Amino acid sequence: MDVRRVSSEEEFEAALAVRRAVFVEEQGVPEHREIDGKDEEATHFLATEADDPVGAARLREYEDGVGKVERVAVVESRRGEGLGRDLMDAVEGTAVDRGYEELVLHAQVPVVAFYERLGYEITSEEFEDAGIPHREMRKRL
Predict the structure, then answer these.
(1) Hey, what's the torsion of the CAs at 85, 90, 91, 96, to 10 degrees?
(2) What is the C-alpha separation between 69 and 113, in angstroms, rounded?
(3) Which residues, including other chains, have CB under 8 Å from residue 25's CB and lie 6 or more apart?
(4) What percent of the chain has pLDDT over 70?
(5) Are 124 and 136 contacting, i.e. CB atoms less than 8 angstroms apart?
(6) DSSP class per residue in 14-65
(7) Mean pLDDT for each 10-residue chunk of the chain (141 residues)?
(8) Alpha carbon 14 to chain centroid distance?
(9) Which domains can be identified in the chain, with CATH numbers?
(10) Does this model's pTM top 0.90?
(11) How far is the C-alpha of 134 from the C-alpha of 108, rounded, in Å?
(12) C-alpha distance from residue 88 to each of 31, 33, 76 (Å)
């Protein structure tokens, strides 16, 4: 398995395909909510296995010294294999390289425990986004 920062249009399209499969097709998020106009300001990450795209994530500046982790997705058939952790390791490494002191993310409630295992702490009450319950979480780097 390979996780890398996206460096070509082809890799970006592969990351978008993963996001569409997970968020739009599987979870029913409207396409216009998933493709939100913020992709150009973000650094994207792609996980592949034998050149097949299996995971994606993005990182963008949220506020001074804070990065926001978004669109973390692993295709359904590959969940539970550590790909999410590998994606987050790549995102966090890039965040450290950029000098971010903290990361924030909006975790879907069913995966809050996953992020807690990675050191993130819940910082909000439950809220709804695209019809899905979420919690804000943060981690000091």
Answers:
(1) 120
(2) 16
(3) none
(4) 100
(5) yes
(6) HHHHHHIIIIIIIT---HHHHS-S-GGGSEEEEEEETTEEEEEEEEEEEETT
(7) 95 97 95 94 96 96 97 95 96 98 97 98 96 97 97
(8) 14
(9) 2-140 (3.40.630.30)
(10) yes
(11) 4
(12) 24, 22, 17
The residue with tokens 């990450």 is: 45
Taken as a whole, the chain contains a residue count of: 141
Q: Which two tokens stand for residue 115?
A: 């992020």
Residue pointed to by tokens 């973390």: 72
CB 102 within 8 A of CB 65: yes
Token pair recorded at residue 20: 């569409």
